[in-house]
Amino acid sequence: MKLRVATFNIENLSSRWRFAEAQRGDVTAAMSLAEFARPIERETAERSVGLTLEDDKRQMTALAIAESRADLICLQEVDSLRVLEAFFANYVHRMSDIRYGHFKLVEGNDRRGIDVAFAARRSLLAADQVKVTSHREATFGEFGVYGPEIAAFGIRADDRVFNRDCLMVDLQVDGAPLTLFVCHLKSMNNGKDDGRAATMPLRRAEAQAVRALVRRRFGERWREAHWIVAGDLNDYREIIGPGGSVTARIPSGLDGLVEGFGVNPVADLPVHERWTHFHRAWSETEQRIREEHVQLDYVLLSPALAARGAAVTIVRRGLPYRTPLDPRDPDRSIPSLALKGDRYPRVGWDRPKASDHCLLVVEIDLPAPSSAP
């Protein structure tokens, strides 16, 4: 049967307005223009601004999910199960003719409380056909991925390996088994010049731990089994620059998951389509504005699933207008970008937007139970 599997970093789906002492980034600009005599006044204004922005943003997030027509959705940056259910009930189900359920979330290790989550088309599965296993307690030592590079961070072998979690979701879809490994690997420290290299050992360890989990789950038959690793893996193996130029960026923290292991169907797309995230920032090292289109979001297929073919859809209509939708276009001027590209109503230059990531959908052909391993 055909099955549409999606991953989407929905960017801080949160019921909380402050992380420690830091403001929410989406309200900082507006709040900087105001002065308040008392803290309670600031708090009230901040919540008002935040809720207004959140409503616009979540309508667009829901439109991306509705457009995807996904059967299974792996999500990142979700605050809690309560807010996930409220989002689907009050946004997604007002825009989509698909009804979702089977919501799963386990509180992970991220200090901001952003977790990975799972949802599925309600009619696709019965409640007893969804089993979830968290690996938030798994350690570096447990998977044999501890070494000097990890110790240099002040980390011990018995510390937790997953920056958030690796949520294993075992499904029975019309009797056919399918296992998802939902991930959100260590960030690159917000795109700082040295952020990717500095944090790569942590992502590499997480990727190797996910690989070990797959091997543990399926043993020597892992190649023939039907599994998917999905999520925001926070690294890339190539950069698509202005004009469509491609620069290989290997080694990558993801090498353990894609070299002789999982299959990335996005790699088969034309070069200018192989991206899910756009980054534009000043580089102190290069003393210039650097623009990069990269793939951070993945639906990696087991060799057995990949052999049956896959179709890729990347939903981009929720991206802000500042994002060039075609890396090959040399004109990055404001007038050009503002008039190009199909966007959802009320998408802004920088915000509001659906997310800073694209939603990625991969349609697979899941074999009938008689032919499933």
TrEMBL record:
InterPro entries: Endo/exonu/phosph_ase_sf, Endo/exonuclease/phosphatase. The keyword Transmembrane does not apply. Residues 64-357 form the Endonuclease/exonuclease/phosphatase domain. One of its GO terms (molecular function) is endonuclease activity. Keywords: Endonuclease, Hydrolase, Nuclease. This is Endonuclease/exonuclease/phosphatase family protein. It comes from Alsobacter sp. KACC 23698.
